[in-house]
Amino acid sequence: MASGRRLNACLDLEHDMAADLEQLGLIDARSDTDSSRSSSDLNPITLELNRLLSFQAETPIKAHERDDGPFIKIGEGECGAVFAREGDSFAVKLPRTYEHAALWNDYVNHARIARLFDMWEFDEVKIPACHYFVPADEPRFFKQHPRLGEAVYQECNLPASALVTERILPLPKRVRTLLINKYCAKKMKDQARTDPANRDCLVRIYLGSTQGKTGQHLFSLRNFKMHLNQIMELQLDVRALARRVGMALALMHWAAKTDARGVEFVLGSSSKTISLAADPSELWSVRPLKYTGPASGRHDDLFRRVETTQLWVLDFNQVRSISVDKEGVAQAVEAAMINDPYIPKPLQESDDEREVWKAFVLSYLEAAEVILVGEDEDILGLPRLFIQGLIDVQKEEQRAAIS
């Protein structure tokens, strides 16, 4: 690592860079606006969603008994379908057709980007652990997991290759219930509550769209799309989301040297175990030989498992390498434009959209500066060229819209 600095430090943005970028026209020059509202303005559903979807929100969970239960489909995309078993910490992605090369590309880029997130000690955006790849002609994996074969035969062509990664846990049941209550059409709510697919709830963060609506008739919690206007309505920390997306994108561009094509940013859960053991600093005041274990006497009750809300990045099957030059920047701009609208848009009218863009730009450029420290001036200017590329594309779209 070139600098020895943790990339997370870029969350502390520097005002000097902001002033510089305002002069260059890359961000809006108006002063920051405080668009937050009092929590007393929120109705109960919105208030609870605000609490549960905020970073590091904790929800107690029950431990699952490990068994040889069935694998179920928990997600799908262009590259294939994803399967997991209740209580397991891993997920298996398989191609629906014989697109084994796309899955291998997913594996290589996932492993590469995950390694760099770790090298830079960047954990503001989580990336699933990338475990291993199984070629289609390797029989041992499916022999060890016969119930996986039972689950996938109607979805995928067998024999199939497989990519084994850490599973991103779905958001807690209470979050799912609240999302249905708030955003689903009234006559569809009962069906949505009982649809098994809605247990696999991840929330896509669309910082570049304000098209979110309530009363949706085509409603699914599997990859639920939450647009900027909905994020603002829930009073989530949208600037923190934009900063984290900016840093993650800078890492994928300038550390991993990829275009980040097709990657997704989602809110999901991760689990951790908290020990309830006595605090060693307090033992000096405890009566000697006193029992300090759980009240039940059961060892398992000494630990509490909780889920925490996290921002994750996933899906690397379309990612391509880039050259560190203007051609590479053009490729990265093109990739950003064809992705779903995870990246904030420039040149928007509302203060909220302008402030989200500003937070993204500052974070992206600050992170890129840290990553590229020591490079020559031509290379150091490439991240700003990427931002200018996004602005130029938006200008063209706006001209086309009024012509």
UniProtKB/TrEMBL annotation:
InterPro entries: Znf_prot_DUF3669. Residues 311-372 form the DUF3669 domain. It comes from the Eukaryota. It holds the Pfam family DUF3669. PANTHER family: DUF3669 DOMAIN-CONTAINING PROTEIN. This is Zinc finger protein-domain-containing protein. It comes from Chaetomidium leptoderma.
